[in-house]
């Protein structure tokens, strides 16, 4: 029962909301639906409005965006925020040099054991000092010049991952330091929205995060999702500091702040080199930018012995990776016609080494962005290549042009097929109206179909596709499977052996999965993840082809636009014909399957809600079993819920189920469902 005393109830709500914020933002494992969180939040807001004296700085209502400051107030750091020496030698040599310096400073001989290091990522964002008094966040400040930073508490409070109150037994004073950054997907989404609005795009995640944190008006952060990783300490009082850096990070994680999992305690130079190489191989796959790794002597007592040179500790070093942004001259602008006919201006660059590879093409996205960035042939431009994101031109290096260069214009006719170029109302994209008549669209459709993540036809690259399409050998996808060795061997630069290899690869590709096949069809809005969800949910192609929009909407993450796109695709007789021809060519997969398992799916199309504690299964385990059986787990009970699985201390969801007459089962009942009984 909730307390009628507003002070007690407010405290209760604060604790509950802070708990759920941590589950949601830091652990990425929410326990309650968003609507329930909102309800509790509003209840707290109402109490605080009626009793302003009950407002506390750790109240989640204080995260709300909208504070505006006249200027940023300086903050003196009791413990200066240092910078780290940078090792620019991006080869293993950088790690060896650091270890050698540390050993020399510590007067270690060859016979002495290796030094222990804490190795972690070097996040590319903005350093922040978080000051917690008695566990409550009282101030957040930038690094500034290291001695004095700026108070940015109003903005930092809007970052969900930064707790307003630490978890557990917090010391009277602890300052936790780390990096505020923006994930690449959040950055891409932001820019995608900017592009849709025809607004200015942001250059890179780091500048965006740093710019946002230093805004006077916290409303500027409303559309920018920022994240945080802790990597060290500032001032502390009344706390027995752990003896190593590694243990310090563990303690910070236990307080509930995000600490990146890609960290390690390693031995000696060899350990550092291995870490540097392991992270280099993972760099593109990380969800955020890093510009290197950081090595720190793990033992705090040794750190103290090593001390500082000017403003840099002798016990730490940043070991860089190749930069993700470079400058290079723009040699030309070409138009690329995509799979859906979209015309994209592509920069032809003087080849340049960026983020680990040499690139000579980069996207300019669309005409409006190109104009806004005012890039013209002959300019020196900045290119960025980070992760799996397509390399892009982010801007031009300011400077006067020696000659007049006319502004780039979109062609009126498709440069590939000559069809009229159209711009749909309200869209900023120009499109070729030629459809599959356009060789470029056909080529892209084929390349997509044969791609590694789709049908995975080894050896079918763009050169070959060019020949097949330009030579008139292929007009439709199914014709791919009618190619014989003789036809192929007649092509340019195609020996008998490679022709035979391709035919074998085509044959091999016929045995696939439903998810891959769906993705390969190139249905608009259906990416790899959606294809997997569809395959998992429906289990068979026929069911997907015949699914109504409503049925499609039941699939995880499928919204109205995606559902309509799938529906429209399968409503076209032409597309159904393509599917039938592909099946006739011998393409097959195990039905009921999106991956490789062929287990029965007794809960297909069923929505279940879990509540309370089950005797044997954890929430996660139950969810996995239900999903493996084709069911969907929802956070709240509605008329659409098929079953509520209730355990000990089931709460309001159980009441709701009874109210709506939804079948309530216990764990044994769930097991019976999973086993196929109902
Ligand atoms: S430790 C005494 N660890 O790099 C060491 N810094 O030049 C103080 N940074 O401004 C910093 N990732 O913003 C440390 N894992 C990490 C880091 C990191 C990024 C940034 C930080 C600082 C700069 C150091």
- The strand count comes to 24
Count of separate DSSP helical elements: 23
Low-confidence stretches: 593-597
Strand order of the largest sheet: 2-13-10-3-9
Number of domains: 5
Shape from CA axes? Answer: globular
Helix share bin: 25-40%
The CATH class assignment of the largest domain is Alpha Beta
**Cα-based radius of gyration, to the nearest Å:** 29 Å
How much beta, percentage-wise?
15-25%
CATH superfamily assignment of the largest domain?
DNA ligase/mRNA capping enzyme
What fold name stands as the CATH topology of the largest domain?
D-amino Acid Aminotransferase, Chain A, domain 1
Quote the distance from N terminus to C terminus: 35 Å
Write up this protein.
The protein folds into five domains: 6-62, Orthogonal Bundle (Helix Hairpins), CATH 1.10.287.610; 85-320, D-amino Acid Aminotransferase, Chain A, domain 1 (2-Layer Sandwich), CATH 3.30.470.30; 325-396, OB fold (Dihydrolipoamide Acetyltransferase, E2P), CATH 2.40.50.140; 434-598, DNA polymerase, domain 1 (Orthogonal Bundle); 607-674, BRCT domain (Rossmann fold). It contains 23 helices and 24 strands. β14 (325-337) and β15 form a beta hairpin. The longest helix has 21 residues, at 6-26. It is globular. It starts with 5 loop residues before the first helix and ends with a helix. 2-(butylsulfanyl)adenosine is lined by residues 82-84, 120-123, 127, 143, 179, 231-232, 294, 313, 316.
């Amino acid at each position: 029962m909730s307390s009628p005393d507003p002070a007690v109830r407010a405290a209760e709500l604060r604790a509950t909301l802070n708990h759920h914020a941590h589950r949601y933002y830091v652990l990425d494992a929410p326990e309650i639906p968003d609507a329930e969180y909102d309800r509790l939040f509003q209840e707290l807001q109402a109490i605080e409005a009626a009793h302003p004296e009950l407002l506390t700085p750790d109240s989640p209502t204080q995260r709300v965006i909208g504070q505006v400051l006249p200027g940023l107030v300086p903050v003196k750091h009791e413990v200066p925020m240092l910078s780290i020496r940078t090792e620019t030698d991006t080869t293993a040599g950088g790690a060896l040099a650091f270890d050698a310096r540390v050993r020399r400073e510590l007067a270690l001989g060859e016979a002495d054991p290796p030094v222990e290091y804490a190795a972690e990522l070097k996040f590319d964002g903005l350093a922040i000092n978080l000051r917690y008094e008695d566990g409550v966040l009282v101030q957040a400040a930038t690094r500034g010049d290291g001695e004095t930073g700026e108070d940015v508490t109003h903005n930092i409070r809007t970052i969900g991952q930064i707790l307003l109150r630490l978890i557990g037994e917090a010391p009277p004073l602890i300052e936790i330091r780390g990096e505020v950054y923006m994930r690449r997907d959040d950055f891409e989404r932001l820019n995608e929205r900017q592009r849709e609005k025809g607004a200015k795009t942001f250059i890179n995640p780091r500048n965006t995060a740093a710019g946002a944190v230093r805004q006077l008006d916290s409303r500027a952060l409303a559309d920018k999702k920022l994240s945080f990783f802790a990597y060290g300490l500032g001032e502390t009082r009344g706390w027995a500091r752990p003896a190593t850096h590694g243990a310090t990070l563990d303690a910070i994680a236990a307080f509930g702040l995000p600490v990146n999992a890609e960290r390690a305690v390693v031995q000696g130079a060899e350990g550092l080199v291995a870490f540097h190489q392991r992270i280099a191989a993972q760099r593109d796959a990380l969800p955020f930018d890093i510009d290197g790794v950081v090595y720190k002597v793990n033992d705090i007592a040794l750190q103290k012995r090593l001390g500082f040179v000017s403003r840099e500790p002798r016990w730490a070093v940043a070991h860089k990776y190749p930069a993700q942004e470079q400058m290079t001259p723009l040699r030309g602008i070409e138009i690329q016609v995509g799979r859906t006919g979209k015309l994209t201006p592509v920069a032809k660059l003087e080849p340049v080494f960026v983020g680990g590879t040499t690139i000579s093409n980069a996207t300019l996205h669309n005409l409006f962005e190109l104009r806004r960035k005012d890039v013209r042939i002959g300019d020196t431009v900045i290119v960025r290549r980070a992760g799996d994101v397509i390399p892009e031109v982010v801007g031009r290096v300011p400077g006067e042009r020696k000659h007049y260069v006319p502004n780039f214009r979109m062609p009126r006719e498709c440069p590939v097929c000559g069809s009229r170029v159209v711009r749909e109302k309200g869209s900023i994209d120009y499109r070729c109206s030629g459809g599959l008549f356009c060789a470029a669209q056909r080529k892209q459709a084929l390349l997509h179909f044969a791609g590694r993540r789709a049908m995975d036809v080894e050896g079918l690259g763009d050169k070959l596709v060019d020949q097949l399409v330009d030579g008139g050998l292929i007009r439709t996808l199914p014709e791919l499977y009618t190619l014989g060795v003789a036809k192929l061997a007649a092509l340019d630069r195609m020996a008998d052996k490679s022709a035979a290899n391709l035919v074998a690869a085509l044959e091999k590709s016929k045995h696939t999965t439903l998810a891959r096949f769906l993705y390969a069809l190139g249905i608009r809005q259906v990416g790899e993840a959606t294809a997997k969800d569809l395959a998992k949910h429906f289990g068979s192609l026929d069911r997907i082809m015949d699914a109504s929009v409503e049925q499609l909407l039941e699939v995880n993450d499928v919204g109205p636009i995606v559902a309509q796109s799938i529906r429209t695709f399968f409503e076209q007789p032409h597309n159904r014909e393509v599917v039938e021809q592909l099946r006739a060519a011998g393409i097959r997969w195990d039905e009921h399957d999106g991956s490789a398992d062929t287990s029965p799916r007794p809960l297909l199309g069923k929505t279940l809600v879990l509540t309370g504690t089950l005797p044997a299964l954890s929430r996660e385990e139950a969810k996995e079993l239900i999903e493996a059986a084709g069911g969907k787990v929802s956070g709240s009970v509605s008329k659409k819920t098929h079953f509520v699985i209730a355990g000990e201390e089931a709460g309001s969801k159980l009441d709701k189920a009874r109210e709506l007459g939804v079948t309530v089962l216990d764990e044994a009942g769930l097991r019976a469902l999973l086993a196929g009984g109902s």
